[in-house]
C-alpha cells in the first residue's frame, strides 16, 4: 500500500479504537444535568456507566469468534449500526432505566470496533510494522480521555447533554463511511470455524486453566478496576461535593488521565531495568499505600479539592505500570489461543470495572468515601492475589517465557481509560 492508503487505514483503525473511550468519558460531565433532566439521582445515572462496562465485557467475548467466522467487515457493520441506533436512543430517552439499557446496547455495538481494529492490524500490516502501528493506535487511545470529557463538558454546558450522544452517533456514522470506502476487508471468512457454544467454551477453558493467565488476569484486572471506581464516582465528587463547573471537571479529568498516559511511557523505560513481575508488584504496593491514605484522609477530613487531586494523580500513575505488564504476562503463555486469551482478559477486566462502578453507585452517600474506598479495596485485593498466587502456583510457573519476550509485549501495552 502507498503512504496515503497507509495513513487512511491507521486513521480509521484509530477512530474505531477510540469509540469506547469516548463513549465512556464524554458524557461524564453531564451526570448532574442528566439526573436533573430525568428526575432521578446521580447514583442511578452512574449505573448507566456500569451497564456500558458490562456491555463491553460481554461484547468482546461475542465478537472474537464472529470476526473469525464471518470476516472482519460484516460483524463490524452490524456492531456499528447497533451503536448508532442505541446512541440515538440515549439522546432521546426520558428515563434512567431506558438510558441504562441503551448504554448497554451502545457498548455491545461499539466494542465491535475495538476488537476488529486489533484483528485488522494483524491482517493488514506485515509483522515488521505491527509494533509501530500498535504504538500509533495506543497513542490515539491514550489521548482520547484528555479530549472526551473536556469536549463533553463544553457540549453539555452550551447545548445540553443530549447532544453528546448525537455527536457520538454522528462520529460513528462517519467512521462507517470510512470503513466502506477505504478500509480493506482483511482476513477472509473461515467457514470451518465452529460457533457452537461447546467449541467456543472449550477454547476459553484451555486458557483459564493456565495458572499464569489466571494469576495475572485476576491481579491485574482487579487492580485495574480502581480507575473505573474513580470514573464512576468523580462526577459526583467534583461537580456536586466540590462544586466545580462542567468545564473545570473536564480539565481535572484530563489532568488525571495524563497520569496514566505518562506512566505508560515511563513503563517502557523501566522495562529496561526491571521485569514485568517486579513492576506489577511495585505498582500494586504503591497503590495500596496511597489507597489507605485516601481512605484515612477522607475519614479524618484531611483533604481539600487540590490535595485529593494530587493523591488521585499519584494513584492513577500505578495503572501505567499495572495494565501493560499484567496484559503481557497474561498472554505470554499463548501462541495458539491468543485470540481467546485476549478476549477473556479484556472481558474479565471490563467485568471487574463494571462491578467496581456498580459498588460505588450502591454505596453513594454524598461523600468522597465510596469512590476512594473502592479504589483502595481494588488495589489491596489485587496485591494480595498477586502475592498469594505467585506463592501457591510457583512450581507451575517455572516454565514462563523469558523476561525479554514479556518486556517487548508489555512495552506495547495499551493505556485504556
TrEMBL record:
Cross-referenced CDD domains, in alphabetical order? MFS_MdfA_MDR_like (cd17320)
Q: Which family does it belong to?
A: Belongs to the major facilitator superfamily. Bcr/CmlA family.
Q: Where in the cell is it found?
A: Cell membrane
Its domain of life reads Bacteria
Protein name (database record): Bcr/CflA family drug resistance efflux transporter
Q: Which regions span the lipid bilayer?
A: 45-64, 76-94, 100-121, 133-155, 161-183, 213-231, 251-270, 282-303, 369-388
Major facilitator superfamily (MFS) profile domain ranges (all copies): 9-391
**Topology with respect to the bilayer:** Multi-pass membrane protein
Query: What UniProt keywords are attached to this protein's entry?
Result: Cell membrane, Membrane, Transmembrane, Transmembrane helix, Transport
Give any Gene Ontology cellular component: plasma membrane
Query: What InterPro entries does the record point to?
Result: Efflux_drug-R_Bcr/CmlA, MFS, MFS_dom, MFS_trans_sf
In its UniProt record, which GO terms are filed under biological process? xenobiotic detoxification by transmembrane export across the plasma membrane
Q: Molecular function terms in GO for this entry?
A: sodium:proton antiporter activity; xenobiotic transmembrane transporter activity
Amino acid at each position: 500500500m502507498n503512504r496515503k492508503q497507509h495513513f487512511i487505514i491507521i486513521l480509521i483503525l484509530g477512530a474505531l479504537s477510540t469509540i469506547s473511550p469516548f463513549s465512556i468519558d464524554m458524557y461524564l460531565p453531564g451526570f448532574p444535568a442528566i439526573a436533573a433532566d430525568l428526575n432521578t439521582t446521580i447514583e442511578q445515572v452512574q449505573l448507566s456507566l456500569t451497564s456500558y462496562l458490562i456491555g463491553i465485557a460481554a461484547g468482546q467475548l461475542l465478537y472474537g469468534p464472529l470476526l473469525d467466522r464471518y470476516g472482519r467487515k460484516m460483524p463490524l457493520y452490524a456492531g456499528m449500526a447497533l451503536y448508532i441506533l442505541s446512541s440515538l436512543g440515549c439522546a432521546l430517552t426520558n428515563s434512567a432505566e431506558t438510558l441504562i439499557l441503551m448504554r448497554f446496547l451502545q457498548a455491545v455495538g461499539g466494542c465491535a470496533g475495538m476488537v476488529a481494529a486489533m484483528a485488522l492490524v494483524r491482517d493488514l500490516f506485515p509483522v515488521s510494522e505491527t509494533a509501530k502501528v500498535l504504538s500509533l493506535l495506543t497513542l490515539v487511545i491514550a489521548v482520547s480521555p484528555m479530549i472526551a470529557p473536556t469536549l463533553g463538558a463544553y457540549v453539555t454546558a452550551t447545548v445540553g447533554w443530549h447532544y453528546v450522544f448525537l455527536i457520538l452517533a454522528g462520529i460513528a456514522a462517519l467512521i462507517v463511511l470510512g470503513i466502506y470506502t477505504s478500509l480493506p476487508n482483511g482476513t477472509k471468512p473461515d467457514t470451518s470455524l465452529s460457533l457452537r457454544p461447546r467449541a467456543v467454551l472449550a477454547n476459553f477453558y484451555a486458557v483459564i486453566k493456565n495458572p499464569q493467565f489466571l494469576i495475572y488476569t485476576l491481579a491485574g484486572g482487579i487492580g485495574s478496576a480502581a480507575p473505573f471506581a474513580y470514573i464512576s464516582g468523580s462526577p459526583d465528587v467534583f461537580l456536586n461535593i466540590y462544586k466545580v463547573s462542567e468545564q473545570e471537571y473536564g480539565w481535572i479529568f484530563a489532568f488525571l488521565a495524563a497520569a496514566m498516559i505518562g506512566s505508560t511511557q515511563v513503563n517502557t523505560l523501566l522495562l529496561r531495568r526491571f521485569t514485568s513481575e517486579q513492576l506489577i508488584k511495585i505498582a500494586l504496593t504503591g497503590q495500596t499505600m496511597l489507597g489507605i491514605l485516601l481512605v484515612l484522609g477522607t475519614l479524618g477530613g484531611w483533604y481539600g479539592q487540590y490535595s485529593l487531586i494530587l493523591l488521585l494523580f499519584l494513584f492513577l500513575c500505578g495503572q501505567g505500570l499495572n495494565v501493560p505488564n499484567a496484559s503481557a504476562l497474561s498472554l505470554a503463555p499463548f501462541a495458539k489461543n491468543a485470540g481467546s486469551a485476549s478476549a477473556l482478559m479484556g472481558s474479565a477486566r471490563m467485568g471487574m470495572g463494571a462491578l467496581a462502578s456498580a459498588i460505588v453507585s450502591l454505596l453513594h452517600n454524598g461523600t468522597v468515601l465510596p469512590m476512594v474506598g473502592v479504589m483502595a479495596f481494588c488495589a489491596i485485593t489485587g496485591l494480595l492475589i498477586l502475592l498469594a498466587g505467585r506463592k501457591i502456583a510457583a512450581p507451575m510457573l517455572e516454565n514462563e517465557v523469558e523476561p525479554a519476550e514479556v518486556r517487548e509485549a508489555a512495552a506495547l501495552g495499551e493505556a485504556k481509560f
